[in-house]
Amino acid sequence: MSTTPPRRHSPAVYRRRRLMVLLLLLIVIGGIVAVIVWQPWRALADVQAAPASTDAAVETGQANPSPAMTPAGDATPTGETAESPASTPSPEPSGTDTAAPVPPCTTSDITVMAMTDQASYGGDQKPQLSISLTNDGPEACIMNVGTATQKFEITSGSDTWWRSTDCQTESSDQVVQIEAGQTVASAAPLEWDRTRSSVDTCDGQRQRAPGGWFHLSVSIGGIEAADSRMFQLN
Q: What residues form the membrane-spanning segments (predicted)?
């Protein structure tokens, strides 16, 4: 029995094999390097995480809708109310801004004068009586100048002929503010019918005043005129 020795490959075959092994080794090494550089697992993680982030963003947008904002500087239209938590409330007026009350007029502030429309009257003329007052004080004051505080009195010597309060049926109050230096007078004069008055003769016959000189004295708001007004009846 003859034994055939194994056939040996040529050196070229061994070189080709070594080249293939080397090529495979290079391919494996290149693949490992590519995996390290590209890191495909990170891309996969990003892809998997992206939907969750999108869902969160959508849910957040639904839970907190952005309010419609008013442009800065625009005024709120009349009749509408702006509801802004950052708005600053208007300051309350301080006590120093409150105006001081106007004081009442005093005798030293007011000058009262008796007035008639004429100095002399004919037989058929009736004197028209008025009051004038001036605020001589340094500031405004208030005073009741209504008919309830007005008094007219006509005398001749020591004889009192007529008082406006004897037969007065209606009276009223009228509080006014008189500025410093201001003069005010009766809106409508009071007419004297040239007769004697008394509380007992308001509805009866009264004595007619004779010709002569008479004096008109007046007061208003408790302040009397310093001087009377003299006039003549003919």
A: 21-41
pLDDT tens digit sequence for 90-100: 545 555 557 88
The contacts found for 207-216 with CB under 8 angstroms, 24 or more apart, are 209/156, 209/161, 209/162, 209/233, 211/123, 212/156, 213/156, 214/154, 214/155, 214/156, 214/161, 215/154, 215/155, 215/156, 216/114, 216/116, 216/127, 216/129, 216/152, 216/153, 216/154
What is the C-alpha separation between 220 and 197, in angstroms, rounded? Answer: 20
Indicate the DSSP class of residue 198: -
Tokens standing for 33? Answer: 């390097």
List C-alpha distances in Å: 119 to 44, 126, 133, 154.
Answer: 120, 12, 20, 14
Phi first, then psi, for residue 104 (nearest 5°) are -70, 155
Partner residues linked to 145 by β-bridges: none
> How much is the pTM?
0.58
Say how far apart CA 214 and CA 228 lie, in whole Å.
10
CA separation for the pair 193, 191 (Å, rounded) = 6
Asked whether 138 and 106 are in contact (CB, 8 A), the reply is no
| pLDDT score of 195 | 96
